């Protein structure tokens, strides 16, 4: 049990450090330009250069990996069960078996929400009842975003991107 949990924790920590700080720090270094020229197409294919999608897909992989390991018996909660009250044992076992799929579901939900909210956070955070001048600017931003998406989709359809 400890071996699998340790390696899952190490890989998760490295992935999170990479996405939150490491990538931005290395990208600012001139000597790393060749590495990023090589890795960027992979990032675009796997998580579309989005930190949120990267984190969501990492959660999904961890959830599915934990499901497989739990079902294979590699992760076992028997050593901690003496600390659980007798009345809660059945509930804890059911929740433990569901936890990996809950983690994967949260990852899927995060990715769907990221795909749904592609606006800048400042615009998303505005209240529904906006002053008229702010509403007009938001409408312009929405129109520009829609036009940009159409141009990119057309370029992809023509094979230019």
- Quote the beta fraction: under 5%
Pattern of helices and strands: HHHHHH
Contiguous helical run count: 6
State the distance separating the first and last CA atoms. 46 Å
> Radius of gyration from the CA trace?
22 Å
- How can the largest sheet be summarized? none
Shape: extended
Average pLDDT for all residues:
85
List the domain count as a whole number.
2
Considering DSSP H and I runs of 4 or more, what fraction of the residues is helical? over 70%
Runs with pLDDT <50, length 5+?
Answer: none
The counted number of beta strands is 0
SSE-based structural type: mainly alpha
Draw up the topology in text.
Elements: H1 2-27, H2 33-47, H3 51-72, H4 89-116, H5 121-124, H6 132-158
Helix pairs in contact: 1-3, 3-4
Task: Summarize, please.
This protein has 161 residues and is mostly helical. It has six helices and no strands.
Characterization of the model:
This protein has 161 residues and is mainly alpha-helical. It has helices spanning 2-27, 33-47, 51-72, 89-116, 121-124, 132-158. The chain folds into two domains: 2-116; 118-161. The protein has six helices and no strands. Helix 1 packs antiparallel against helix 3 and helix 3 packs antiparallel against helix 4. The radius of gyration is 22 Å and the shape is extended.
């Amino acid at each position: 049990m400890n071996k699998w949990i340790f390696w899952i924790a190490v890989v998760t920590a490295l992935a999170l450090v990479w996405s939150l700080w490491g990538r931005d720090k290395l990208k600012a270094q001139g000597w790393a330009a060749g590495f990023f020229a090589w890795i960027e197409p992979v990032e675009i294919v796997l998580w579309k250069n989005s930190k949120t999608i990267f984190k969501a897909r990492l959660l999904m992989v961890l959830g599915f990996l934990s499901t497989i390991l739990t079902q294979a018996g590699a992760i076992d909660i028997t050593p901690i069960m003496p600390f659980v009250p007798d009345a809660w044992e059945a509930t804890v076992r059911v929740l433990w078996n569901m936890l990996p799929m809950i983690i994967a579901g949260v990852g899927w939900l995060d990715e769907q929400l990221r795909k749904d909210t592609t606006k800048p956070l400042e615009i998303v955070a505005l209240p529904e009842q906006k002053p008229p001048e702010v509403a007009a600017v938001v409408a312009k931003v929405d129109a520009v975003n829609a036009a940009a998406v159409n141009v990119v989709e057309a370029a992809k359809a023509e094979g230019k991107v």
